[in-house]
């Protein structure tokens, strides 16, 4: 196995983890998150109201997330993904999925 593949495998196992976003009654916290492909984002509703997590382009969407519940989505591809709560349109956020840059023999 070459060093490049070992490096990418190591990143995928250790650094591409879960990221958490807390939903309160009027915000996603944080409202902007940068991650890498194959990372999982978990939204947790800690507020008193029901919410959704719906991407602006309908790429992903949760069911209603009741207080104390969570929603998970794994982002496989690079890009920027805006999202909002269907019940509270002013509650919004963005996920930026950065590209993995391969080390082409440069050390």
UniProtKB/TrEMBL annotation:
Coiled coil: none
InterPro entries assigned to the protein according to its UniProt record, in alphabetical order: Cupredoxin, EfeO_Cupredoxin, ET_Amicyanin
Superkingdom per UniProt: Bacteria
Span of domain EfeO-type cupredoxin-like: 18-95
Gene3D superfamilies registered for this protein in UniProt: Cupredoxins - blue copper proteins (2.60.40.420)
Pfam families according to UniProt: Cupredoxin_1
PANTHER family: BLL1555 PROTEIN
Name this protein carries in UniProt: Blue (Type 1) copper domain protein
